[in-house]
Automatic annotation (TrEMBL):
It comes from the Eukaryota. One of its GO terms (cellular component) is endosome membrane. It is a multi-pass membrane protein. GO terms for biological process: copper ion import; iron ion transport. The keyword Iron applies. Belongs to the STEAP family. Keywords: Copper, Endosome, FAD, Flavoprotein, Ion transport, Iron, Iron transport, Membrane, Metal-binding, Oxidoreductase, Transmembrane, Transmembrane helix, Transport. It comes from Smutsornis africanus. SUPFAM superfamilies: NAD(P)-binding Rossmann-fold domains (SSF51735). Residues 249-394 form the Ferric oxidoreductase domain. Its cofactor is heme b; FAD. It holds the Pfam family F420_oxidored. The gene is Steap4. This is STEA4 Metalloreductase.
Length: 461
């Protein structure tokens, strides 16, 4: 047998694996997209519609029948219809008895109704086995095949067998079912698509607040102060100089804020002598959005890199260099190389490059496709050990930036220190406290507490 014929054999359809017919109520956008995908995956599809006339939009291998006729042809019926039209199902209750009804609907507002759409469907057709699924997948993604971002399909329902049947279909479509439990979870699943970056809210609002604060701070120090005292117009600093001050400041502060809650949690656990008491809500929420804080920090660090790369082509910088050279020529005097300055400048750059490299590494390992491929220990090693090393390097980069003027009172303007000095407060605090926590007298009890030991056990035998 030649190679080609064996391939043809392998590709021939396996008739013994014939899939069961799936019925879809509703020939709207989602119904058609799902029907199309089901047919591609080998499922016979029958549509239940108010109009049995077929159209060019409906997949050509599908049948279009009345709701009652279509329901009789399949054990699974996907309801691709908005909740407000569900009452047409009540007269069909007898036909739908014992069938698996898949509710895929979404609402326009979070908690729009007292009960979830799936629970409402179960009340309307009490004899049916209702399963919630597919509501987080968009019709467009199904049709175009661009499902990378939303491969997960949340499934919930009270009947295990019905849920299993739906999860088999989900898998056959190349998607990943995630069992969320009973139908009680439906309301939460219906709220998912309505949430607007819930974990990103805090990092973004915090970043906006910090941007506003540091923008005005730098504006006062770098633009208004020279204007008032030297009558110099440095307003063009807003475009690059001030932006390139704010970006590294935010990157450093946000990176430190990724590690601050862990340090606070350790202090709380040491103080309480147990890990079995809940952290305050604000700390819990803060811990949950650490990844997003880190990614926003990485975005600011990347912007800082870009802004830094354009420094040599800035007109102001070129003017300053050329006027410095010309004044040396006019005075017939050259300045000797200041090796201390050269050291400071090279160390500053080296620390920044290494810090940014580790920052990018942290960002890459936080991507699900990468973090799913490392074990828990490896993930913790990268996010904790390398994370702290990144914080140390970036903090040192900022300190060395100050060079000889670091903490010098002459750099104050209107009693305001340079903005980079303010940015060091949180990272230095985190690093000092972390350093103290590493001492054996604190690290040992903390490790014991995290392994379940309690200073004053609540439930002593
Ligand atoms: P759609 O394009 O408006 O289609 C809804 C279909 O429902 C209509 O085509 C119609 O089908 C049927 N219908 C309308 N009024 C009806 C009535 N009074 N009685 C009986 N059937 C009626 O909506 P869709 O975008 O496909 O969405 C359908 C459901 O899927 C919604 O619950 C939505 O929340 C959910 N969903 C949609 C998407 C999406 O990307 N579109 C994603 C996830 C979930 P016939 O004309 O064939 O009867």
């Amino acid at each position: 047998m030649n190679k080609n014929s064996s391939n043809i054999m392998a590709l021939a359809p396996n008739t013994s694996n014939k899939r069961e017919t799936v019925c879809i109520f509703g020939t709207g956008d989602f119904g058609r997209a799902l029907g199309h995908k089901l047919i591609q995956s080998g499922y016979p599809v029958v549509f239940g519609s108010r109009s049995t006339q077929t159209s060019s939009l409906i997949p050509k291998d599908a049948e279009v029948l009345s709701h009652a006729e279509a329901a009789q042809k399949a054990a699974i019926i996907i309801i691709a219809i908005q909740r407000q039209h569900y009452n047409f199902l009540t007269p069909l209750a007898e036909i739908l008895h014992g069938k698996v009804l898949v509710d895929i609907s979404n609402n326009l507002k979070i908690n729009q109704y007292p009960e979830s759409n799936a629970e409402y469907l179960a009340q309307l057709v009490p004899g049916a086995k209702v399963v919630k699924a597919f509501n987080t997948v968009s019709a467009w993604a199904l049709q175009s095949g661009t499902l990378d971002a939303s491969r997960q399909v949340f499934v919930c329902g009270d009947d295990m067998e019905a849920k299993q049947m739906v999860m088999d279909i989900v898998r056959a479509l190349g998607l990943t079912p995630l069992d969320q439990g009973s139908l009680l979870a439906a309301q939460e699943i219906e709220n998912y698509p309505l949430q607007l970056f819930p974990m990103w809210k805090f990092p973004i609002l915090l970043s906006l607040g910090l941007i506003a604060f540091f923008f005005f701070y730098c504006l006062i120090r770098d633009v208004i102060y020279p204007y008032v005292y030297e009558n110099k117009d440095y307003s063009f600093f807003i475009a690059i100089s001030i932006a390139n001050r704010i970006c590294p400041i935010l990157a450093l502060i946000l990176l430190a804020l990724v590690y601050l809650p862990g340090v606070l949690a350790a202090i709380i656990q040491l103080y309480r002598g147990t890990k079995y008491r809940r952290f305050p809500d604000w700390l819990d929420k803060w811990m949950l959005c650490r990844k997003q804080l880190g990614l926003v920090a990485l975005a600011f660090a990347s912007l800082h890199v870009l802004y830094t790369l354009v420094i040599p082509i800035r007109s102001f910088v070129r003017w300053r260099i050329s006027s410095h050279i010309i004044s040396q020529v006019l005075n017939n005097k050259t300045e000797p190389l200041d090796t201390t300055n050269a050291w400071l400048s090279d160390s500053y750059l080296a620390l920044g490059i290494l810090g940014f490299f580790l920052f990018v590494l942290l960002g890459i390992t936080s991507l699900p496709s990468v973090s799913n491929n490392v074990n828990w220990r490896e993930f913790r090693f990268v996010q904790s050990k390398l994370g702290y090393l990144t914080l140390v390097l970036c903090t040192a980069h900022t300190m060395v930036y100050g060079g000889k003027w670091f903490l010098s009172p002459s750099s104050y303007r209107w009693y305001l220190p340079s903005a980079y000095m303010l940015s060091l407060i949180i990272p230095c605090t985190v690093l000092v406290v972390k350093f103290v926590l590493v001492f054996p007298c604190l690290d040992k009890p903390l490790t014991q507490i995290r392994q379940g030991w309690e200073r004053n056990p609540q439930y002593s035998e």
